[in-house]
Structure of Bifunctional F420 biosynthesis protein FbiB:
Amino acid sequence: MTVPSYEVRAVPGIPEVRPGDDLARLIADAEPGLRDGDVLLVTSKIVSKAEGRIVRADSREDAIDAETVRVVARRGTLRITENRRGLVMAAAGVDASNTEPGTILLLPEDPDASAAAIRAGLRAALGVDVGVVVTDTFGRPWRSGLTDVAIGAAGVRVLDDLRGGTDAYGNPLSATIVATADELAAAGDLVKGKAAGLPVAVVRGLAHVLGDGSTAADLVRSPAADMFRLGTSEAVREAVTQRRTVRAFTDDPVDPGAVRRAVAAAVTAPAPHHTTPWRFVLLESAAARLELLDAMRDAWIADLRRDGKSEESIAKRVRRGDVLRNAPYLVVPCMVTDGAHDYGHARRDAAEREMFVVAMGAGVQNFLVALAGERLGSAWVSSTMFCRDVVRKVLALPEEWDPMGAIAVGRPAAPAADRPARTPEAFIEVR
């Protein structure tokens, strides 16, 4: 049995790289002893230097802004950002290390193209078929310390998809995709170091990782598959601002666990006198939803007829309730005022009730935002407040429970429309 092994070594003799230098020629002149099947690991900093990606240090913040697509997380002056290449990293990859004083480096404009150019240049200069990986240093969520990863690649199978195979015990592999290019980059960093002036390394003995046409861009997780796109405070703000009133839902079933997690968020809202005024009635069966909505519709029609509305007008108004009728899940939030103070004074008693109503609104807002975080749409409709007796009767609720609307829940049938921008200054008075 052949025991798997490989060799990784740094390449000495690479001179200081200047803008316009032919990087493949510089590496070839250093006599790296390359053979077919080797993998060359090249630090992105010398690629950036050769490509003239150098700016003045006093322009660092402007450079970060220019390279940033979105801020993922911010802690004081540190920004974790997604840059124009889709990479999520500190300061968009703008770096002040291993460059002349007074200058900073931007990442290569197209690291995959840079890797392909070096590979082609080495083939022309040395007649060898090698893989090339352009590396950079990343921090990682959940882990302390830094490591090198692949930001550009050519001639290397960057991912090794083992799904569909089995492990040594015959267990099926259903989720195993190995980031081969990142593993190569990390191995190279062990011999290149951060301050040794050795920006290039060679891996030998792993010819099987060469060539399938993939690039380092394939390592970047798509937004739809990224479960951790934002930092904590950024995710909270995103959930709040992305909450929308959804009026059309798919037929997909709603996860009851997601709704219960949203209830758990709801009951953390502030409330007067350390009370807990929130109750949530979850209508998970179609029969329960239909019974309630039919009774509410009949009560609404009776009210509209008393108002003297025409049958055409009534039919039009009743159709507004379709948002509840067509939703796959319905929630009726209710308020209880247990613990409210009784002052025996109209103004003070009214204010006391208003405190509970405000607490109820805060709880419902928490609930709706938590649903948005679960990728669920919602619509809070006031209709149950106009026929509380009917709702209590159909749902067999205690008399002291006040239904505070109904909430339709489900997967949105279409992306939410853009919300017109609102500047906070329009809503602020400073004294």
Observations:
- The chain has a mean pLDDT of 92.
- Residues 87 and 179 are 15 Å apart (CA to CA).
